[in-house]
UniProtKB/TrEMBL annotation:
Record bears the keyword Transferase: yes
Cofactor(s) the record lists: pyridoxal 5'-phosphate
Full protein name: Histidinol-phosphate aminotransferase
HAMAP family per UniProt: HisC_aminotrans_2
Pathway the protein takes part in: Amino-acid biosynthesis; L-histidine biosynthesis; L-histidine from 5-phospho-alpha-D-ribose 1-diphosphate: step 7/9; Lipid metabolism
Family that this chain belongs to: Belongs to the class-II pyridoxal-phosphate-dependent aminotransferase family. Histidinol-phosphate aminotransferase subfamily.
The keyword Amino-acid biosynthesis appears for this protein: yes
Length: 347
């Protein structure tokens, strides 16, 4: 195996960058009473009149403890989408470097490649929705910086086999981003435990799905200290606001409630799968390791419109490769699920 040299992957401009130093970078509170006259804030306390902690130390300390990593291995962002964008901007030289994505998959990887003027090389999943390892490795060239793996994958719902991912981690000399937005619904273990083993591994998670906090925008990136240090250089100083940090902290502390909700969602998923399987117009149901189910139907456009008329919005994924005539159903509350199933049976 080749030696992994992170510095060779970092854009030259980022390597040379002297990051902006904010007021809260230069003075870090140790908890004692101080008079803060350093950041031109309004001094009258309303709960959010001060700039937030640019490094979100309380939240990171809690996540570090729960996930068994060090705080310096965590970067937080305004949703995973910001985290992913920072990864592009740190490592991909516009109009020169490229990335590899594996459609059908999460649409943001491609959009971010476009925004950052980075070529997106697409290698389709196999027909059973697994990475085509040989073809991926054959597609890598000297300018391939990133490989995006979404597992469990959106919109297909399945997790990727461990062996394939391991082979890619060992053979690919760029950075491999494993997007674990749905990991809390999965039977499989997170790749977080493998960070020590693979210096080229980045794992992203989010509070938007299982944690029920899509509205506060909190995405999490776990990687080696070296990778996180590079990303910290380019992140906007106050990218995660005070209200988000507070709400995230409360929720992450309340792990029992999150677990209970996940359990309920998984029970409802089983009910939904049973109902979908009994429908004549459902031709195939794909295995799900997430909080949604992808179904191949007789006519996705027609079924989508019928559901809309009944006030139910699902996602039509038919434009995605390998996903012709598919609808993606997110698992709702027990009441919503009951209504959906009743409506489906009447179509
Ligand atoms: C929903 C989703 C995310 C979450 O993005 P946020 O910006 O954190 O809300 C990330 N990746 C995938 C694959 C998703 O489906």
């Amino acid at each position: 195996m080749k030696v992994f040299e992170l510095n060779k992957l970092v854009r030259e401009s980022v390597r040379k960058l002297q990051p902006y130093s904010s007021a809260r970078d230069e003075y870090v509170s140790d908890g004692s009473e101080m008079i803060f006259l350093d950041a031109n804030e309004n001094p009258f306390d309303n709960g959010v009149n001060r700039y937030p902690d640019p490094y979100q130390r309380s939240l990171k300390s809690l996540l570090a403890e729960q996930k068994g990593v060090s705080e310096s291995q965590i970067l937080l962002g305004n949703g995973s989408d910001e985290v992913l964008d920072l990864i592009y901007r740190a490592f991909c030289e516009p109009n020169q470097d490229n990335i590899i994505t594996l459609p059908p998959t999460y649409g943001m990887y491609k959009v971010l490649a476009g925004i950052n003027s980075v070529e997106n090389k697409e290698v389709l999943l196999t027909t059973d929705f697994q990475p085509n390892v040989d073809e991926i490795l054959a597609t890598v060239d000297t300018n391939t910086k990133l490989l995006f793996i979404c597992s469990p994958n959106n919109p297909t719902g399945n997790s990727f086999k461990k062996e394939g991912i391991e082979e890619l981690l060992k053979s690919f000399n760029g950075l491999m981003v494993i997007d674990e937005a749905y990991i809390d619904f999965s039977k499989d273990e997170s790749w977080l435990s493998q960070l020590k083993q693979y210096p080229n591994l980045i794992v992203t998670q989010t509070l938007s799905k299982a944690y029920g906090l899509a509205g506060i925008r909190l995405g999490i990136c776990y990687a080696s200290e070296e990778i996180i240090a590079v990303l910290n250089k380019i992140k906007p100083p106050y990218n995660v606001n005070q209200l988000t940090q507070q709400r995230a902290l409360q929720r992450v502390l309340n792990q029992d409630l999150v677990n209970q909700e996940v359990k309920q969602i998984l029970q409802e998923r089983a009910e939904l799968i049973k109902a979908l399987n009994s429908l004549k117009f459902v031709e195939q149901l794909y295995p799900s390791d997430a909080n949604f189910v992808l179904a191949k139907v007789d006519n996705a456009d027609k079924r989508y419109q019928q559901l809309l008329k009944k006030q139910v919005v699902v996602r039509n994924r038919s434009t995605q490769p390998l996903c012709e005539n598919t609808l993606r159903f997110t698992v709702g509350t027990p009441e919503e699920n009951k209504k959906l199933i009743a409506i489906l049976k009447e179509l």
